[in-house]
Amino acid sequence: MVTAAPGLIVRFPKPDAFQEEIVRSPARFKVVAAGRRVGKTYVGVWMAARTGVEGGRTWLVGPTYKIALEGWTLLRSMAKQVPGAIVRETLMEIAWPSGGLTQVRSADNPDSLRGAGLDGVVLDEAAFMDEEAWSDALRPSLADRQGWALFISTPRGRNWFYRLYELARGGAEGWAAWHRRTGESDYVTDAEVDLARLQTSPERFA
Fold first, then answer.
1. Residue 205 and residue 200: Cα distance in Å, rounded?
2. In 10 A of CB 110, how many CB atoms?
3. Res 37: pLDDT
4. Cβ atoms of 21 and 30 closer than 8 Å
5. pLDDT range class, residue 115, cuts 50, 70, 90
6. Three-class DSSP labels, the chain
């Protein structure tokens, strides 16, 4: 449930227990390292939409346009449940009745992410983005509004996303970390996980 404005209550589909723990955490910076099909993109869309509904400006950022489209599909579905929300297909953005705005962007060109003041940002599949997209473009955009950031990704070696996860897991102030394997997901059967184990190399399966 989200209160968008006086007299307007929005009920988005309820997150599962793992998702809700992330949503409810008071940490400003949240890092989620998780396997595929565990619902991590849903968490990002839920959080970006909630802040937008409450009047904030948020971005959902994917490493490529194709991956960003997955978040857009979920966001658009949520927006249709909000009376007065305006869906702008070509711009991939939602104008909420509260005055908030949620936009879907691509990190193909990190320089294109500069300039905006944001109340929150979701970096979907962050491990597959250039670090500069965060450090040089998105992090400064949160400064004046003290905005939050959610990093969600499948792991990709010991890159900058891994370092952020270790920072958050180590108890840095304002940071929190979560980890979940595909086999722990409510959306993937044990049989499917076993089949994947047989059909991929141990390294890729891990």
1. 6
2. 18
3. 65
4. no
5. confident
6. CEEEECCEEECCCCCCHHHHHHHHCCCCEEEEEECCCCCHHHHHHHHHHHHHHCCCEEEEEECCHHHHHHHHHHHHHHHCCCCCCEEECCCCEEECCCCCEEEEEECCCHHHHCCCCCCEEEEECHHHCCHHHHHHHHHHHCCCCCCEEEEEECCCCCCHHHHHHHHHHCCCCCEEEEEECHHHCCCCCHHHHHHHHHHCCHHHHC
**What is the per-residue pLDDT across 63-110, written as a single tens digit (0 to 9) for each?**
999 999 999 999 999 999 899 999 999 999 999 999 999 999 999 998
Q: Is 131 a known active-site residue?
A: no
Give the type of residue at 62: G
86 Cβ neighbours under 8 A, 6+ residues apart? 94, 95
- For 149-181, what is each residue's pLDDT tens digit? 999 999 888 999 999 999 999 999 999 999 987
Closest CA to 48 of 129, 150, 173, 127: 150
Tokens of 20: 């809700």
Q: Give the model confidence (pLDDT) of 23-64 as tens digits.
A: 999 999 999 999 866 788 999 999 999 999 999 999 999 999
**Active-site residue, from 125, 184, 192, 203:** 125
Q: Global pTM?
A: 0.84
77 in Cβ contact with 70 (< 8 Å): no
